[in-house]
Specification:
This protein is about 20% helix and about 45% strand. The protein is an alpha+beta fold. Strands 2, 3, 5, 8, 11, 13 and 14 form a seven-stranded mixed sheet that branches. A six-stranded mixed sheet has the order 20-17-16-23-26-25, with no helix packed on it. Strands 15-10-9-18-19 form a five-stranded mixed sheet, with no helix packed on it. The termini are far apart. The relative contact order is 0.13.
């Protein structure tokens, strides 16, 4: 078996970016000799997953892969430059280091002098004590010597404090310079991987190698840009790609997938679910216990996937492909990759649901003509006057209807008042609850604005699931009468507001319950 001494380049040609990792494909043409030989390919990312490594050969003559593995090694730091070739920053670090050593030596000398002066003062006090004990009375000499020793100690202490302060400031400057030198000139050791490939070929000749593996530190998320122009809307679908695998993806075919390969695929356990019938008790037959609850209106389409963070794909793996080759550097930043774009007619309306929000919102509806499902993600809203903020696009199947809110209208105001009255019929003992909802709509327009604006106002009625509770809309008491009422209890009015105009909308409905009902 022969072993190649030089590394053979193995560039990245295609990448399938998953929700939290990437599947990388590499390709190269190898010029093999007859027999068994070991090749060194790379360098490759050190984050490549060993167990996902797969290699295959394509050739006109018999050739096979005997073994493939990844080896990793630390690249050493580069050699230091010659003293004559030092940069200004390196010379500055050297000068600061020399100055720091000089200050430290001076600090040591001052500290030793201060200690000696302390010993001298102690000796003077001992001599004074011994002289006074023997009858000496030379007070002027004693006072002069003590004053001179104290003055010398004070001066030495002041110089020592000044040197220590200079050392502290110099240490901070030296630390900053060394960090700048490390960031700008000194390359840290790097973990690099290579692929060791053992192949066997019956005859000499070129063969095509295709190698693939998984790698971490790569992910993607969908992003959109919606441009509203008069009656048409242009929706651009992009992919935000992040990767820090240690190597740049240059001119690769990029595929985006929502597959979650890390999730377990064990089937659910099948447990017994026994259903039994029991007779109602006397108390249960006498009373019907009801309660009010909030229920989200369901729509057709895939059910949302709960408990899975990341891309909402409706529970089915989706695959999107970039129409052209792209380059994504390994810098950890967000890179926008265009996927598709379409222009379609859009229906815009000014909508308001006062029970949820007092704002009037410009709502745009259009059909998904992208040719693929629109995954849930943020969307940049653009109108003729410029950027309108950012919204959220829900999962939409191909051909499905999409709703986007292009911000609220500050020149509208909606005030909601709700009243409730309760009474009991004498003979039937039925409880009748009458609720009156009053909506006050106002429009504030600038001078010179002409034309009315239609605002779609929506309110809701309770929907009863039991026959003992009835809901009745009193159309004769509503002002004006609703334009439509759907099966989910949503009442709609199309209210025309003139410039600086105002309107009042009244909704009246009754909730009637028999005497058996409790909890209303």
């Amino acid at each position: 078996m022969t072993t190649a001494s030089e590394s053979i380049a193995l560039p990245v040609t295609a990448v399938t970016c998953l929700e939290d990792r990437a599947h990388v494909e590499r390709a190269a043409v190898l010029d093999l000799a007859a027999g068994v030989q070991r090749l060194r390919l790379g360098p490759v990312s050190a984050l490549a997953v060993d167990r996902a490594l797969h290699a295959e050969l394509t050739a006109d003559h018999p050739a096979a892969v005997l073994d493939v593995r990844i080896t990793r090694s630390w690249t050493p730091r580069g050699p230091l430059p010659h003293a004559a070739d030092d940069s200004a920053l390196r010379r500055r670090v050297h000068a600061l280091t020399e100055e720091q050593l000089a200050l430290e030596r001076r600090r040591d000398r001052l500290s030793a002098r201060r200690d000696l002066l302390g010993v001298l003062a102690t000796d003077l006090l001992r001599d004074i004590g011994e002289g006074a004990g023997s009858g000496e009375t030379d007070q002027p000499r004693w006072a002069g010597e003590l004053d001179r020793a104290d003055d010398e100690r004070a001066v030495c202490g002041e110089r020592l404090r000044s040197v220590e302060a200079s050392l502290l400031a110099l240490g901070d400057e030296l630390a900053g310079s060394e960090q700048a030198l490390l960031d700008s000139e000194e390359d840290p050791a790097e973990l690099v991987g290579h692929v060791e490939l053992t192949v066997e070929s019956e005859v000499a000749g070129p063969v095509a190698l295709r190698l693939s593996h998984l790698t971490s530190c790569a992910l993607w998320r969908p992003a959109y840009r919606a441009v509203l122009d008069e009656g048409s809307l242009t929706l651009e679908t992009d992919a935000m790609v992040w990767q820090r695998t240690g190597e740049d993806w240059q001119d690769v075919q990029l595929t985006l997938s929502t597959a979650r390969s890390a999730l377990a695929t064990d089937p659910p356990r099948l447990d017994e679910d026994r259903l039994t019938l029991t007779d109602r008790t006397a108390a249960e037959r006498r009373a019907v216990d009801v309660e009010l609850r909030e229920e989200e209106i369901g729509a057709l389409g895939p059910a949302p996937v709960l408990g899975l963070p990341g891309v909402d794909d409706g529970g089915e793996a989706r695959v999107l492909r970039a129409p052209a080759r792209v380059s994504v550097p390994s810098d950890g930043g967000a890179h926008r990759v265009p996927l598709s774009a379409f222009t379609t007619s859009a229906h815009a309306e000014y909508a308001c649901s006062p029970e949820l929000s007092p704002l009037v919102t410009r709502l745009v509806r259009f059909d998904n003509l992208a040719g693929h499902a629109l995954l849930a993600g943020p969307v940049d809203l653009v109108r003729g006057s410029g950027s309108g903020g950012r919204g959220v696009l829900d999962f939409t199947a191909p051909g499905g209807s999409v709703e986007l809110a292009f911000g609220s209208c500050d020149d509208h105001r909606v005030v909601r008042h709700a009243e409730e009255s309760r009474e009991t019929a004498g003979l039937t003992q039925r409880t009748v609850i009458t609720r009156t909802v009053t909506l006050h709509l106002s429009r504030f327009s600038a001078p010179g604005v002409l034309g009315s604006r239609v605002v779609t106002v929506r309110e809701r009625l309770p929907v009863s699931e039991v026959s003992a509770v009835e809901i009745r809309l009193r159309k004769e008491a509503c002002s004006p009468a609703p334009d439509a009422v759907d099966a989910e209890g949503i009442v709609r009015w199309d209210v025309a507001l003139a410039p600086d105009g105002n309107r009042t909308v009244t909704l009246v409905y009754e909730l009637s319950a028999s005497s058996k009902v409790t909890g209303v």
